[in-house]
């Protein structure tokens, strides 16, 4: 008797996840309710795993920021683009651990116009020292939101402040949709 193809695929996926020490992974549509449920699961998993308080806080805040960015900016939406509340948009998020070092990764499609703006903001952020990042964070708390931003503009600053290395990012053109790029972001905690 042969194993059905989908079982082999599932086994292969589980083996890859095990090798990469994946502790949380989700791909699909994101909404505020789904993020709240995922946040509860992530928080509990980190507590049960014995992750220390400061690391848990950094992981949790960066996870929430990544999920919020997907909800606000993913180009793959079930809700109309102009809808500002209760958005439902597609993306993925992954948390992995290796010898006490954590990686948070997210991916979602974005318009190429948004990609260029993000590239400039992230390149600037990568060139900043930790003191400059903390100062920019404090200034952003007092400033008006950036034009076109759906938040206070603190997301990338929060992730950069909490990351032990500069944020890594990549934009990959999508052949089927020339005006869309896949946005990948990684924070190391």
Task: Tell me about this structure.
Helix 2 runs antiparallel to helix 3, helix 3 runs antiparallel to helix 6 and helix 5 packs antiparallel against helix 6. The protein has one domain: Histidine kinase-like ATPase, C-terminal domain (Heat Shock Protein 90, 2-Layer Sandwich), CATH 3.30.565.10. The chain is built from 6 helices and 5 strands. The mean pLDDT is 90. By secondary structure, the chain is an alpha+beta fold.
Mean pLDDT: 90
Q: Which structural class do the helices and strands define?
A: alpha+beta
What strand line-up does the widest sheet have?
1-2-3-5-4
Over all CA atoms, what is the radius of gyration? 17 Å
Approximate shape: globular
Count of structural domains: 1
**What is the CATH topology?**
Heat Shock Protein 90
Low-confidence stretches: none
Count of separate DSSP helical elements: 6
Give a short account of the largest sheet.
5 strands, antiparallel
What proportion of the residues is helical, as a percent range? 40-55%
Highest CATH level, the class:
Alpha Beta
Strand percentage lies at: 25-35%
Order of helices and strands: HEHHEEHHHEE
Q: What is the tally of beta strands?
A: 5
CATH architecture descriptor text: 2-Layer Sandwich
The name of the CATH superfamily reads Histidine kinase-like ATPase, C-terminal domain
């Amino acid at each position: 008797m042969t194993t059905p193809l989908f079982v082999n695929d599932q086994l292969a996926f589980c083996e890859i996840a095990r090798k990469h020490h994946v502790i949380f992974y989700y791909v699909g549509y994101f909404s505020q309710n789904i993020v709240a449920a995922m946040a509860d699961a992530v928080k509990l998993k980190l507590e049960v795993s014995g992750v220390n308080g400061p690391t848990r806080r950094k992981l949790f805040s960066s996870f929430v920021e990544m999920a919020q960015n997907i909800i606000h900016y993913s180009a793959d939406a079930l809700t109309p683009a102009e809808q500002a509340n209760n958005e439902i948009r597609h993306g993925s998020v992954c948390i992995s651990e290796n010898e006490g070092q954590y990686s948070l990764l997210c991916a979602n499609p974005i318009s190429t116009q948004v990609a260029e703006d993000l590239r400039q903001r992230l390149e600037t952020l990568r060139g900043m020292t930790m003191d400059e990042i903390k100062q920019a964070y404090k200034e952003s708390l007092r400033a008006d939101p950036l034009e076109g931003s759906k938040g206070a503009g603190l997301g990338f600053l929060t992730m950069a402040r909490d990351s032990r290395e500069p944020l890594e990012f990549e934009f990959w053109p999508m052949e089927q949709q020339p005006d869309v790029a896949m946005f990948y972001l990684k924070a190391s905690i």
